């Protein structure tokens, strides 16, 4: 219904794939809501549009607050946190999905809550249900009333109609009907539940905090509450945590996991740990690999802040060229800035970034960025660097060309808007107007993330659909709307 | 009167000297208010508490908006900017001064406006008037009504009582009565005026934008509006800019300038240019000098984000040790975070910073920071680094020990709260609990900022009172309140 | 979940039964949302807690806005009304029900919307479903997910599960399962629907506006949009209005209507017309009847503002005593006023009412009020009148003693809080501390509303349960919670 | 500077002269701010645009809060009232003055505060300084800096420049320079001061509350805090209240008072007491007088709510015709209502008033109103009454024709907008389109307010400039702007 306006600056100045969501849950602590608020604050990079927390208190029952905006702006007020008593809690931060066209309503904000005959349950997930359209149609036909446009609500209705007599069993019933990529956290009055989809596309980790437990999209959110990382939830695993500890189930047909490789490239925070290695270290290794694959004679390696920095550090170290923070990010940048005239409208990126003129002047500059999506921001940065007097500009990109949309919970432009879907590398170089442009190869990326032999083309170790067009889960709703898979080669 | 509450997080998590203000002015462009808003946004690091803009429009006269909070939150709204028509404008961002005890009222927010018999004028300044108490008493005695607690209002009342018949002359009259450090921007219906105090303690630069001119605390704010740097205003200079161009006056007794050396260390943005060199480059040079003065055998050089980064890059390059972003700053940090329990209260810094555990574990770490004021944050960061498993922690500080308060427009704790005022370097090391602690020498700092022979003890080239206790302008109000100058040695 | 705080002043200063709701709908006009906003504004006396409007637009589909507070505070903003395009609309104003304990959530605010396989429908009602608990339990058992605590949501779920293929038929199915008092307005993409329960306890009228139609709880809301009253919807009638005009159905077993007699006494606005006579005139007639039944020798007839005024006018005219506005209501009274000390807390009513001291002093005063519920306010007003120097105080009440709670959509205190449920008339007089206290008789009230022979004890013409304890619809949920009907006499 | 938008509804629906201000002060009670807030709430009818309170606390000094909007919306919040400690307080409610063109800034909101060499003082007044322009010019010339456009600020600057050594003496000095109508309340750290202008045009009364004292524009504000009326402050009197009690001064040349007669007609609240008689009673007497002067054969006397009611009661009683509340005011009317189409724009008055159709139909109706200013609302009400089926409409107005603007603190349209300034009584009748129109005579009004012999044309007992054009204080600023006095006859 009523639309939340898109912020003009985001449209202009930002050219990244956006992770839709982060999830966090905790059980067995009197600080449940505070811990979830802190955890979501640490996961804020995964979704800035809205957040929600549900708690359960033995006497006051279930409680819920959902708000637009940053966690720090709502879930730091005494008046809000007082509404969230209890010792079990889950929470969610969201970025608007491609499907919602930016028209998010507060009722679309997770977690979702359902009252079943055996008691209530709340649920939140990171990812996307690829057959949600079909499920929704079927459920409405049978008399379910949907209150939101969110695909998560399908899970709640499927649970409501299950004949099982306890909530974890109803959740298994429901999730077996669902296709897609999903890391779920859920809660009942006495249990915290975590589930990853059969391929484990989206992340979910388990931690211990005091006598309680936490579930989180990333380890950086365990750090903020002083929780200790126990392990990653496995692909296809469901854990049910209660007073009696953690019980593990595998309700789906077993499959080899295919974790999202873009979590390594951009989504996850550099201080999170994936597969035992820090994401920062992995990104530095990508820079090293990129310097080997695509060296260039230049004076200075400059990262595009902030996401290009670790790869730029690696590139500089491997190439022996000096590293410099030649582009400064304005840390007070908000989401909007008025743009009343053509003159100012064209400044877009300048509000956020400034080139260090005295450093760049007369130098041959290598700019390292994590990815190129539409190419709009890259063009503007190149112009700023040239305006500041650079002699040459070379782009080095720490991921392969992004040429396919993601349907697994990432906000991607439609395929025709992806620069790499419509241009060759040389065409992109000309479009960006730079002296050279190189992307890391897909095999190089696999090596950098730790696969010594690169990508196994028969059974790829990761989900890399955005680079390869190889979709491990059939995007059936999108195909019904006309999306065409890559032709078999 | 009514107090604005101090933000609990600031008290806990931040241990920096704070610049009070940034000023920006523009004349000769129909985009006057927009340009000032953009300029202030680029100067936001100099003051985050409040901001104000005054404009003059030929038909609509003087207009003013003053607001608490960031520029981006108020001066980006069409409804606000529509109130600011005209082609001359000045603006100000402020940090609360030590003297105001955090109780800033909107009426204390600059620019100040006064209606004189020959027309109105608005004025804003960066710095501090060291004889404001005495001036205020005298003016009240004679029937002036003060509306604010700001020392800038003295200037307006002195101007109102001047017998001169034009505003620039009245301003000269007024400023000759004033002692302290001040970079002033002012405006009349048709003129933009800039003044630096006789010693030029605070910065002010002149730029050209289209057919008009701009005055700014720093060059980074010229960049954001596409203005070209012409030159720095000289110590003791007044420039009056009108349709007929720029006229320069020197209304004070001439003196050798003593620019604030801390602008190089911390206050200015790294992409600003001072004395022809980028601040980033100067800070990197401080790191190089520091590595020479105080080398240590270790595995990794890690900056305290974000201000320690350029010195850390220099330190790493000079020492040959690897550089790593081992501490991640949460970019969604706001000013407050609820802290309902002891457990969470002690986390303070964690809300803002997280140590990259996988990088630090088992390593000997050098932490590079720009300065140590009270030492509170340094202690917490050290604890976080040890918690993450570091084998050794060495602090290297890119400025000498801060042992004297600044009275020239910088928010400093009282002397007894300055760690270096009460402890020797070894006592500080023990207090911080680190394996080694070294500050750059005052001579080393002078060398890094370009004085090859270090500090001229007879006639120091900079104001370095915060390090040396050598105050170039007598802090007479503070002495009346009991402050004692350093005993002659 | 999270509670909306009760306003302290309401608790202190107001002692009325509260109507829960008003409904309004319109079809066949491009001003649909504006007309509904105006209609709800005219019905604001029926519910001040929150309001909602749903519209349907041929291209933009269904749209909904629901807000706490007065209609004039939300549904007068361009930004809100722009979200409500279309030519069919319904709306609702609500007062919090006794059952909700004041903890209303925005999701409890009507209208409710449901998406069915044949399209969407929105529904709002005034009244109460007396078997809602049982229906809800049954629906949850079968897999319905409730999103609110409102009984109206039962109707939507019953409709969702109906096997009928069009929405009016589904609504008949649903309403046949429902017990209680309800006046429903509902809408589909192309139809406006109105229904009254079989006994017609709550009001609903049909009007014509231009080429379109309107449904409203009262005629005063037709006046505000310039609509012409056609007729009252009959008890048990359903009207379906579309392009093709108005079609009437009678889906329930036929019964003799029993309209709520308290609508005449207090709920309806004096300028509304019920049964062809203005409510003002009826109330004046009650005053006349009361003067005949309970005359008293006194100097002045003073109404308790504002609801006692028409009866006081009638009383004064019939008794020949002078009428005076001896108590002034502060028209700027809001819902809250800070009460920091005992001294001020005891002033309660004074914030809202003031006695005209110069009029009252030394006089024997008759105070006319519409009803006495808990008696708290009556006591305070009596004290104020005595403080102002009145010689005698006589209360005359324009309704019989309120001794039973209403379960048909009116917010009543529990029985033990009703003064008349626990005290005889003489005990009440002593409790209130007045010289005399008289209520109109039940037969007298029937006569005043036009039943010349008074109440037909066998087949009462009205619902008068609040006075008589004779409940025309069995309050089954409340009885399951322990409420006991009046013992047979 | 920045303008506060006028509310469209006010422009459309209201046609009254507006009193600019109410003042209230209290000393000698720990509830000082609460009492002032309550007093201002009771005086809210005198000004709804903004309000302010200043207090003084022995340790926390002077405190001030000024806010737009109703008292109940700001000065009822704990967070606001906590900012106002102390045992002396004054406050002010304001309506925007004609001169300010609706562009009120918060800095224009009284009380004003000035810091003098012997301590601070705050001041607020009701009325208007008729030589404020000239005084302001003179003060600026001598170096005073004005912060507001309010004429009250002149008083503060005059006080600042006085050579007297205590504040009450400085105030005498200042007020002797001032011309106009003013009731002042002021305070120092230990004193509460009240002054009425030499003619006593605006009201001010003294009350006793506990061990302390209160000053108020009207007695109704004494009632709300339980204060006892002592007496009216006399024309030209200054009272200074401290620990030692009340001291009275007469600093001006003595003159015979000329109280504003319109306070009786409309400005004051009906429950206030002026000259020992209730305003309600006076207004009822005006109705009686009017019925004698201008009887008419009709069926029903209906007041225009709410200000016409007392006169209508008197008219009905004297004429023997029945009285009826035939026009209902919507008590939920706010200041704005969206008016998106011509159809709705023309409804203006309907949003606020509704005619009781069933009462009026076929009847000959007398409408009683307190005054006619521009006549816009009267025309619309007449149309509504005719639309509702009235057979005849007769207007009876409880004041003489308003044909001159007030320059003594009342917001009046310019003379050309006053209906009675441009039309004869018959022309007005035709313009309003009614069957008859009669105003009370000026002598009749004087009789009704208690002057048995009517108006003394030589030495009128009241200020009646708005009716007679006889201005007791020369409106010199307005004359400098071109206003012409009535030609001598």
From TrEMBL, chains A, B, C, D:
The keyword Glycoprotein does not apply. The lineage of its organism: Bacteria, Pseudomonadati, Pseudomonadota, Alphaproteobacteria, Rhodobacterales. Keywords: 4Fe-4S, Glutamine amidotransferase, Glycosyltransferase, Iron, Iron-sulfur, Magnesium, Metal-binding, Purine biosynthesis, Transferase. Binds 1 [4Fe-4S] cluster per subunit. Binds 1 Mg(2+) ion per subunit. NCBIfam families: purF. It comes from Meridianimarinicoccus aquatilis. The keyword Transferase applies. This is Amidophosphoribosyltransferase. Mg(2+) binds at residues 307, 369-370. It catalyses: 5-phospho-beta-D-ribosylamine + L-glutamate + diphosphate = 5-phospho-alpha-D-ribose 1-diphosphate + L-glutamine + H2O.
């Amino acid at each position: 219904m009523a639309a939340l306006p898109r912020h003009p600056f985001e449209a202009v100045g930002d050219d990244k794939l956006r992770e839709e969501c982060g999830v966090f849950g905790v059980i067995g602590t009197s600080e449940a809501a505070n811990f979830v608020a802190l955890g979501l604050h640490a996961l804020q990079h995964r979704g800035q549009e809205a957040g929600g927390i549900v708690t359960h208190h033995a006497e006051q029952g279930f409680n819920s607050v959902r708000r637009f905006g940053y966690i720090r702006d709502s879930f730091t007020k005494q008046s809000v946190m007082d509404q969230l008593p209890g010792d079990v809690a889950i929470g969610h931060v969201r970025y608007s999905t491609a499907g919602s066209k930016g028209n998010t309503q507060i009722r679309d904000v997770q977690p979702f809550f359902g009252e079943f005959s055996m008691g209530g349950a709340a649920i939140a997930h990171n990812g996307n249900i690829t057959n949600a359209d079909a499920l929704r149609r079927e459920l409405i036909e049978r008399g379910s009333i949907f209150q939101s446009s969110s695909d998560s609500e399908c899970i709640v209705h499927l649970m409501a109609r299950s004949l099982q007599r306890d909530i974890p069993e109803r959740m298994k019933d429901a999730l077996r009907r669902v296709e897609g990529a999903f890391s779920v956290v859920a809660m009942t009055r006495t249990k915290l539940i975590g589930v990853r989809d059969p391929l484990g596309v989206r992340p979910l980790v388990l931690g211990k905090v005091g006598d309680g437990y936490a579930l989180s999209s990333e380890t950086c959110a365990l750090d903020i509450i002083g929780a200790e990382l126990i392990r990653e939830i496995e692909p296809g695993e469901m854990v049910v945590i209660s007073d009696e500890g953690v019980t593990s189930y595998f309700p789906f047909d077993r499959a080899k996991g295919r974790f999202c490789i873009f979590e390594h490239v951009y989504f996850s925070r550099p201080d999170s740990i994936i597969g035992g290695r820090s994401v920062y270290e992995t990104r530095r290794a990508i820079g090293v690999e990129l310097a080997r694959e695509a060296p260039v004679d230049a004076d200075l390696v400059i990262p595009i802040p902030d996401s290009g920095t670790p790869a730029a550090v690696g590139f500089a170290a491997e190439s022996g060229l000096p590293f410099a923070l030649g582009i400064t990010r304005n840390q007070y940048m908000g989401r909007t800035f008025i743009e009343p005239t053509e003159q100012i409208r064209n400044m877009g990126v300048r509000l956020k970034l400034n080139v260090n003129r005295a450093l760049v002047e007369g130098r041959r500059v290598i700019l390292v960025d994590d990815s190129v999506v539409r190419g709009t921001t890259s063009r503007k940065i190149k112009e700023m660097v040239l305006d500041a007097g650079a002699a040459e500009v070379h782009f080095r990109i720490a991921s392969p060309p992004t040429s396919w949309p993601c349907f697994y919970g990432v906000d991607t432009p439609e395929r025709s808007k992806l620069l790499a879907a419509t241009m060759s590398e040389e065409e992109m170089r000309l479009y960006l107007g730079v002296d050279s442009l190189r992307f890391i190869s897909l095999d190089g990326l696999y090596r950098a993330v730790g696969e010594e032999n690169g990508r196994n083309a028969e059974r790829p170790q990761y989900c890399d659909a955005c680079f390869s067009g190889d979709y491990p889960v059939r995007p059936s709703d999108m195909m019904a709307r006309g999306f065409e898979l890559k032709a078999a080669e």
